[in-house]
Amino acid sequence: MPGRRASQQSSERTLALTILGVGTAASLASLLGGVWLVRAGVVVAVLMAFAATWVAWREVRAERERHAVEMKHEVGLRAQQAERFHEESVAMISRFNARAENLQAVIAKLRGQLGAAKAELSSMRGNAVWLRAEVAERQSRIEALEARIAELEAEETANIVDLPRRVSPSVADIWGENEHPTMVDLARLNLDGLPELRQA
Question: Origin, by domain of life (predicted)?
């Protein structure tokens, strides 16, 4: 298309220059003749001027038409580019919105997990406090029981009397022939090994 435009411009320009050249030559040639020849030269010059003007206007009109076609084509291309850019922008915005929604869902999930973890931590802290109190209470009870056991052991050791293990009286030593089996003659028992009982 640029070559065609250049050829059209060159042909129209050549035609206009040819008309002007011929008209100028005819006008100059008419100066060498008589009055009628000069008048004819002036008429030829005027006609050539009109012809050159007509060719120039035709070239301007053709140039305007070509410019209008080019502008229409350019506007169409720009409209297509704008439409494509708009579609790409809408697609990009849709992708960003989808990504933002996914991120919001992830954030909401993480917030839920964080809330659950905080609740569990609070519960564990409460359980730890309760366990500490329970351990302290049981420790105090254990200490009280250990103190009571120590007291009882002290009392038992104070009341314990060591008995000789070799004292094993026979039946004849305990009962006589005519005595009731439930009666024990303490005089027959050998209590020398138990001085504490004798004092008691």
Answer: Bacteria
